[in-house]
Amino acid sequence: MTEVRKTLKLTVRNLNLHYGSKHALQDITLDIRDHWVTALIGPSGCGKSTFLRTLNRMNDLIEGVRISGEVKVDGNDIYADGVDTVTLRKRVGMIFQKSNPFPKSIYENVAYGPRIHGLKDKAALNELVEKSLRQAALWEEVKDELQKSALALSGGQQQRLCIARALAVDPEVLLMDEPASALDPLATAKIEELIYGLKERYTIAIVTHNMQQAARVSGDTAFFYMGRLVEFDATEKIFTSPKEKRTEDYVTGRFG
Amino acid sequence: MKPSKLWMGRLVTGGSAACAFAAVAAVAWIVTTIVWGGRHQISWAFLTQAPTEGMTQGGIFPAIVGTFLLVVIMSVVGVPVGTITAIYLSEYVSRDSKLAQIIRFAVNTLAGIPAIVFGLFGLGFFVNFTGKGMDLLFSPKGTLVWAQPNILWASLTMALLTLPVVIVSVEEAIKTVPRDLREASLALGATRWQTIWRVVLPGSVGGILTGAILAVSRGAGEVAPILFTGAAYFLPQLPHHLTSQFMELGYHVFIMATQSTDVEKTRGIQYATTFVLLALTFTLNFSAIALRAQLRRRRAAV
Predict the structure, then answer these.
(1) A93 at the B interface (CB within 8 A)?
(2) Does any CB of chain A come closer than 8 Å to the CB of residue B300?
(3) Sign of CA dihedral B299, A97, B182, B175
(4) Is A172 exposed, middle or buried (0-12, 13-18, 19+ CB in 10 A)?
């Protein structure tokens, strides 16, 4: 790796995750750079989504999951004793595969995070809602119907709303779990454009099944296979001259 | 096919149809008899006046008020307790833990206890134990204030009886709140409680309402739990305090049919009272069903 590394936002060392008797993540070591997009690719069931969910401790919610190793955000171990998952998840936001807006108005969806973190001032909330919707490139489409139910939006709009909702709590890292897999090509293009713009301000880790998408949006790419990290390098290298045979087979579509 | 097999098939089809028809026939017969028997008695005056002439004339207004108050106090206590229990069971303890199993076993057992046992329990626990204790602490020496059957103890006994209905109904509703939405909330840095309060409960309002309605309908229809805990044969005035006794529709039917001064003369009143009781529980049941159907449709639409 010739390129000089920028600041590291997340560092993962020897991460192991067991789910019941299954060893779902095996000895993962990986760095995620600040203000950078890191793509996680690999066939279904390879552990990439599970890995993503360890970064904001969403796997804590699943019974029977045991985790060992180290995950650090800005140098602080998030699995250390006494770490507050509420604060962690405020800093490390998440966008899910299936858009999951609350059955509330567009406004209330975006205001949800700030409200639970104690923001009550109406003017400040209005401003934050607008800012977040603008950042998520949704403002122009919904500014006249903020009180409309979020469920009335199209799939692509719902996903951008979820992004706006995540941005409203002012996170530093955004974890995206196949955010465009359920969308049509046009909506997907919009989300990708959005991700490209967001990396100016946020650190992004994105799980994707779509090779072109990984190639288009990311700076680094990690290839997972059967719970192991097979190869991790600059995206360009992974797609043009991977070191591992399995990586090459996967990115060229020979399996997966 | 052998003729014997053919006949067997016909016999089963016919037999099952007859059994199914029996249920329909029973409902039709009950409703018809009651409406027919009470047809001369039912009137606005009957619903709004107190009984007169040793309860051989007049209306059932106090019993309607008593029933109403009973189910209101019961709901005010039972619905929150049941809802909180359901939340605890579905959100705080793991499904297969010993604790959850014990609570669930207790709830199921509670649901299977005969109503009369609740009545005796209410008398023993609320009237004689809690009430006596409260009198020792708060009432002037030697006076009985709380250690007597009253509408509060009757309502609490009834709340206990209907608790399983509320718990099961709310738990079902909580289960239908998608996991996605909980995760969305938690991923935004919400605490478990914030997620319950702002996402899970709003999504379960229908179930809570259904549970409340079913509990009320069950409570309005039971007599045994209030026999010893608060229901009165006849009262000249309406209940005005938690320590008041009260008249109640189901109990009124019972005493009019068994202990009235003139059972024959009051046939019409008995039928009409039963009719009011039935109308009340049917209406409540149907609104619960309608509410649930509507919620299902809305969920399917999302």
Answers:
(1) yes
(2) no
(3) positive
(4) middle
| B198 shares contact with chain A (CB less than 8 Å) | yes
Interface probe for B, chosen from A100, A167, A175 (most Cβ of B below 10 Å), is A100
Write down the number of H helices and E strands in chain A: 10, 10
The pair of structure tokens assigned to A54 is 């360890």
**pLDDT mean for each 10 residues of chain B (302 residues):** 82 91 92 89 87 81 92 94 94 86 93 94 94 88 86 96 94 90 95 94 89 89 92 86 91 88 83 92 86 74 54
Distance CA B161, CA B110 (A): 7
Whole-angstrom Cα distance, residue A194 to residue A224?
A: 25
DSSP H helices in A39-143: 48-54, 85-91, 106-116, 122-135, 139-142
Touching B: A residues 124-183, CB under 8 Å = 151, 162, 165-166, 169
Q: Which two tokens stand for residue A214?
A: 């990984």
pTM over cut 0.90: no
DSSP B112-147: HS-HHHHHHHIIIIIIIIIIHHHHHHHSPTT--SSS
Contact B302 A112 (CB under 8 A): no
Neighbours of B124 (CB within 10 A): 13
**CA–CA separation, A30 and B192 (whole Å):** 30
The ipTM assigned to this model is 0.91
Residue of B274, B252, B282 whose CA lies nearest to B50? B252
Distance, in Å, from the CA atom of A166 to the CA atom of A143, rounded to the nearest integer, reads: 18
HSE (side-chain half, CA atoms, 13 Å) at B87: 20
Residue B104: in which H helix or E strand, if any?
Answer: helix B98-112
Three-state helix/strand/coil letters over A139-207 = HHHHCCCCCCEHHHCCHHHHHHHHHHHHHCCCCCEEEEECCCCCCCHHHHHHHHHHHHHHCCCCEEEEE
Q: Which amino acid is at A54?
A: T
Continuous segment of H or E residues that includes residue A9: strand A8-19
Residues in chain B, how many? Answer: 302
d(CA B258, CA B260): 6
- Chain A segment 197-226 residues within 8 A of B by beta carbon are none
In the numeric block, which tokens belong to residue A136?
A: 């998520």
Report in angstroms the alpha-carbon separations of B181 from A198, A252, B66, B202: 24, 36, 43, 12
Residue B112 burial (C-beta neighbours within 10 Å; 0-12, 13-18, 19+): exposed
| CA dihedral over A233, A239, A244, A246, signed as positive or negative | positive
Strands of A228-234's sheet, edge to edge? A92-95, A173-177, A203-207, A37-41, A220-225, A228-234
Residue B279 CA to residue B242 CA, distance in Å, equals 27
B195-218: per-residue pLDDT in tens?
999 999 998 988 888 889 889 889
Bridge partners (DSSP) of residue A31 are A11
User: pLDDT tens, A117-138?
Assistant: 999 999 999 999 999 999 999 9
